[in-house]
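User: You have something folded?
Assistant:
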Amino acid sequence: MVKKITKDMLISEVVAIDPMNISYILMDWGMHCINCIAAAGETLEQAMYVHGYDDSNVEELINELNEYLETQRTDPSYLDEIFDKNVESDSVTKVSADSEPSVNGEDNKEE
């Protein structure tokens, strides 16, 4: 059974469920506190309030995290959908293993 995330869980407990992917989701919300000392003693709800979010945002994030946990085993592309939804295309350039790295959409090849 997949564990459900609640607003009363500590950030450290939430991240421990799936450290890499949940960290990405939290960071996508601007919550870079996953490695912060507060993560050990601050709930998800408290962290959201500190970052200026309200109750509706807390509920939205919890739903997003729980939806991710429910679908991750059957649809591994779900994290890409979350990422694509929340990130402006100009700010991040996705790269594949066979593509050349770029910054702000410009090639970094030396001429």
